[in-house]
User: What shape does this take?
Amino acid sequence: MRLILFLCLCFVVTATAPNSEALASGLKTSDIDDFARYLFLEGDYTRAAGEYKRLAYYENSDSLRLSWQLWVGRSEALAGNRFGALQYTGHVARHADSFPNLYSRAKLQLGVLALESLDFMAARKHLTELKDDSLFTELAVLFTIPVYFWQRDYSSVSFTLANYPASPLTENQRTALGQVLTIARNSPTKSPFLAGAMSAVIPGSGQFYCAHPVDGIQAFLFDSMFIIAAAVAWSNEDPSDSDLDALTILATGAATVVHGANIFGASRTAAYRNHRLRLDAFDESLQIAKDAYMEQLRLELSPHDPPEN
Assistant: This one.
């Protein structure tokens, strides 16, 4: 009799116990979604990723689960967790073949992640594999502009800007990209060989050629000092003595090393300047594209929008 009562009690407790989702969260899915959106819009991306993980964990619908996982990837990317962003976004891209919209958005996110690590081959691959003609396809085109800047293909930048639609790029962002293009075009590259050759003839002139006057003055003074020291040492040599004085040998060796370093430094200055100009144009254009992308994500998370599916 006690056994029967015990079994009945267990049945009642099991039947009336809350389900695992309610036990885990105590909230409705819509409540968690609202809170995750709030965290994302507030810039608390790490906590937003945690809430989206919870939504994905308890979701039975494949499309919604992949959607939540995509938002995990986006949140992790903005939180600086590149590994987590690649893990979740890559998972969505691999499993969203039946959902072109989700697939395209995942590919766009993967393209952005590849650009941030200067992996241009992977970026091109992801950005050209979007499956639909949605707004995110236009964003993918926008993210090709930083690649063109890196390649110094300014005609392609100009063509893309001239044919780009009014949205999602704002007028201010379009103007900013135009300014980056103008600066890049008006900042010609410097020849490392010519810079080195100039400094070989006149110490520091290669640095001046590269628009580094302070470095040029330092190189001229330092190099000239050793050259003069070597010249003085040679002028004090006894012509009748076939053996060179140790001081002359030391001064000549030091002047040779310093002059060689000056030539190498001028060449490296030209190469660095070229790289810096290219990197600056790339970084600025990428940030503008990311700002436009972020604005679209914020629009998606407006309070009255349903989760993407």
Notes: The first helix runs from residue 2 to 16. The two ends are 54 Å apart (CA to CA). The chain has two domains: 24-187+288-300, 192-287.
